[in-house]
């Protein structure tokens, strides 16, 4: 006990100095974290002010936060006497080892950078990629967040998105609705075609240009199939789609034109 007290007395100046440096290092960390969060928010606001896609803003803000945080940690370590030059070298070697172990994460980061550069979609677009579909909510360093129409959230690795085909349903202002409507072989084809056209003519959300198309597609096994292809604004696609299907069925029924459906005849024989 006496030895410990003597050691403390002999090294009191050194311990005081180290304690002060440690407190300063902690203050640097505390302030640095606040600055990193502030930089994150300012980056997002700056992008929003310039009307840049919020998904891009989120991605860049994450990188800015990570950079400021890393600089803060190095400053704090330097304050307590750690040689940052050698520490950076150690971090580099450790980073290489970690990078080899976490190739998937690096691939996700690289894919995130490609998404930002190539811009195959933006926040709010409805896309299909990697076997999933939904509206893009935000793009982060390693993943992209999608929201499905039934309000499910999908967190997709960026590499899964960039490794295959990406279908963007929202990029173009207009879309074509493709419907196949079958009528019986005994139906008057000219009448059926006129009924289908009248349904389209009554729908105000269908665009005049490009003009819609109604034509016989094929002579199927049990029906004559018409193809019905009107163009609409992308935002109107599903509302018009659902209403057309309903109105076509009602109009064909009113015209006495039957839509074939699978049937099975059962014959019973009595001995």
Automatic annotation (TrEMBL):
Query: From the UniProt record, which GO molecular function terms apply?
Result: mechanosensitive monoatomic ion channel activity
Give the way it sits in the membrane.
Answer: Multi-pass membrane protein
**Mechanosensitive ion channel MscS C-terminal domain: from which residue to which, for each copy?**
177-259
Q: Where is this gene product found?
A: Cell inner membrane; Cell membrane
Top-level division of the source organism's lineage: Bacteria
Pfam families attached to this UniProt entry:
MS_channel_1st, MS_channel_1st_1, MS_channel_2nd, MS_channel_3rd
- List, for all copies, the residue spans of the domain called Mechanosensitive ion channel transmembrane helices 2/3: 62-103
Entry keyword Ribosomal protein:
no
TM region(s), chain numbering:
15-36, 56-77, 89-118
What is the annotated quaternary arrangement, including any partners?
Homoheptamer.
Q: Report the protein name in the record.
A: Small-conductance mechanosensitive channel
Please name the source species.
Pseudoalteromonas caenipelagi
């Amino acid at each position: 006990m006496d030895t410990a007290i003597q050691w403390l007395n002999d090294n009191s100046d050194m311990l005081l100095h180290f304690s002060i440096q440690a407190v300063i290092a902690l203050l640097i960390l505390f302030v640095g974290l606040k600055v990193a969060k502030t930089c994150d928010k300012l980056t997002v606001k700056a992008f929003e002010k310039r009307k840049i896609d919020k998904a891009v803003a989120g991605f860049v803000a994450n990188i800015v936060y990570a950079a400021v945080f890393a600089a803060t940690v190095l400053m704090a370590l330097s304050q307590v006497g750690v040689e940052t030059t050698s520490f950076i070298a150690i971090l580099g070697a450790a980073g290489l080892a970690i990078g080899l172990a976490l190739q998937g994460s690096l691939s996700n980061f690289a894919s995130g950078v490609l998404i930002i550069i190539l811009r195959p979609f933006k926040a709010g677009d409805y896309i299909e990629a990697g076997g999933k579909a939904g509206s893009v909510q935000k793009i982060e360093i390693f993943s992209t967040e999608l929201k499905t129409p039934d309000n499910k959230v999908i967190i997709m690795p960026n590499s899964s998105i960039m490794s295959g085909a990406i279908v963007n349903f929202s990029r173009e202002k207009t879309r074509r609705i493709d419907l196949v409507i079958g009528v019986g072989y005994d139906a008057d084809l000219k009448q059926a075609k006129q009924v289908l056209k009248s349904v389209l003519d009554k729908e105000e959300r269908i665009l005049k240009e490009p003009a819609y198309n109604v034509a016989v597609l094929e002579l199927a096994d049990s029906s004559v199939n018409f193809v019905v292809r009107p163009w609409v604004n992308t935002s109107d696609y599903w509302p018009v789609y659902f209403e057309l299907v309903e109105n076509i069925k009602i109009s064909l029924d009113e015209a006495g034109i039957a839509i074939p459906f699978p049937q099975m005849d059962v014959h019973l024989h009595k001995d």
